[in-house]
Structure formats: C-alpha cells, structure tokens
Amino acid sequence: MSAFSTGASKTNSVLQTPSFIIKRTGESVARGINCSHSITGYYVILWYKQQQGALKLLGYLNGDAVNLEEDVKGKISFDGEGNKHSSLTISNLTINDSGVYFCAWDIHSEQSGAKR
C-alpha cells in the first residue's frame, strides 16, 4: 500500500487537491493530483516529490510543453497548461512512490524556458 500526501493548499490564487491518496501496489494515480492557479504572468508549473526529507524535481510544464527529469520518464507524467493547471499521473505504484507530491509556479515567458 502506498500513501501520498499531496501538499494540498488552497489560497486565493493556488489550489492543489486532493490532500491525501491511498493506493495499492501496482495501481496507478491517473491524473489524480491536481494543481491550478490564477496568477497572471506565471507560465511554468514545477512538480516535486518530498520523501524522507529529500526534495526532488520531477519535471515542469512550460506553457503546454512537458519537461520530465530523465529518471522519472515512464513512471511519472503530467499534462495541462502552465498558465492555469496541471494533473500528475504516477504509474505502476511501488512502496518507493510513497511521499509528498506538490507543485509550484514560476514566472517566465513561454519562450524563455524554466529556470532551476
């Protein structure tokens, strides 16, 4: 069984849901972690995983262009529009997938690319 906390938040401009997910090993979280924002001028959504105190960038969505870190390709995917929303999918869950998943926004033009 894998447990996921999604770092859920709700402010006037950012919403991440749900706050908690429990799945069995081998299942998937299909578009199950959702982030949306209404911050003008923000075009990049970054996805992170925190596990055992370590923070790992999974990838980012710049406009509608998905940029995944090499070591999560085939395991993690996400879609959406960087200036509005994104949904995260985690495939074929293992105990190592347990952790806190969250998103953040960055202020870039769609042409500039994301900074790290």
From TrEMBL:
Q: Name one Pfam family in it.
A: V-set
What Gene3D superfamilies does the database record attribute to this sequence? Immunoglobulins
Q: Which GO terms describe its biological process?
A: cell surface receptor signaling pathway; immune system process
Q: Where is the Ig-like domain?
A: 12-103
Keyword Signal appears in the UniProt entry? yes
Q: Does the keyword Lipid biosynthesis apply?
A: no
Q: Which GO terms describe its cellular component?
A: plasma membrane
SUPFAM superfamilies found in the cross-reference section: Immunoglobulin (SSF48726)
Keywords assigned by UniProt, alphabetized: Immunity, Signal
| InterPro entries according to UniProt | Ig-like_dom, Ig-like_dom_sf, Ig-like_fold, Ig_V-set, TCR_beta_variable
Name under which the protein is recorded: Ig-like domain-containing protein
What lineage does UniProt assign to this protein's organism? Eukaryota, Metazoa, Chordata, Craniata, Vertebrata
